[in-house]
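pls ignore typos typing on phone
adenosine-5'-triphosphate + seq
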Amino acid sequence: MCRGGPSADAGGMITSAPPVLQAHSLSKTYDSAQALVDAGLTVRPSESVAIMGPSGSGKTTLMHVLSGILPADTGEVQFSPAAGQAPLRMSTMDAEQRARLRREHIGFVFQEGLLLPELTALENVAVALMVSGTPRAAAEQRAAGWLAALGLAGFEQRRPGQLSGGQAQRVAIARAQVNEPAVVFADEPTGALDSATSESVLDALLSSTVSRGAPLVMVTHDESVAARCSRLIRLQDGRVVHDSAEVAA
Ligand SMILES: Nc1ncnc2c1ncn2[C@@H]1O[C@H](COP(=O)(O)OP(=O)(O)OP(=O)(O)O)[C@@H](O)[C@H]1O
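k done
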């Protein structure tokens, strides 16, 4: 189901809460490739936004610019880590400030979980808190809570090589959520999984993000994955050519 307009909160209530992300006039050129052209997007709490488009249309670049991995050439991304706080303008931040912002307020899930192979599932999740200064014992306690919430109680001491693809991706989701980031970005999070596993991993990703009020912004090539999101954005040649929220407004 694609719902447009104001986002629905965890209880399905319609809200017009202030945006978490507000981006406008974004452009990005690599050498001669124009990856983004005057792109913009506003993302509100509890939305799940699917970004689709042909290969090379700029999906990954848009996600990287929205999350501060890459600076835009022009335009602005305003990010509100907490309700009521003045938005931060990414164009005013240097690479180190953007990296800190990502560490503290943004979660990522990639197609391949990118877990550290020598660490246990518990350590892989806890490390996301420890890099921001949380002591190990407290970090591991919270990590264990997130693993249990994602159906992985009993798997804490396994290393990634001892987990199935779906279990490893749940660990990656727990790692992305453990510091309760203001927004979660996912790049083809189920792209490497079979369809049944993909469905349950997607359930876990959607419920663990949207139920705590954070938006999920997800790049996908899969229409059935996009159909589970509350909103669909389509890119073509670096431009946003369709936004289901605008169509519905
Ligand atoms: N690091 C880079 N250096 C040069 N060109 C790049 C770089 N990254 C992306 N591009 C180019 O920018 C354009 C957009 O790429 P991007 O990866 O954002 O598209 P995409 O929609 O995510 O593609 P795909 O679905 O294939 O992953 C493409 O023309 C691509 O070749």
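The first strand starts at residue 7 and ends at 8. The pocket of adenosine-5'-triphosphate is lined by residues 30-31, 33, 35, 53, 55-61 (CB under 6 Å). more later
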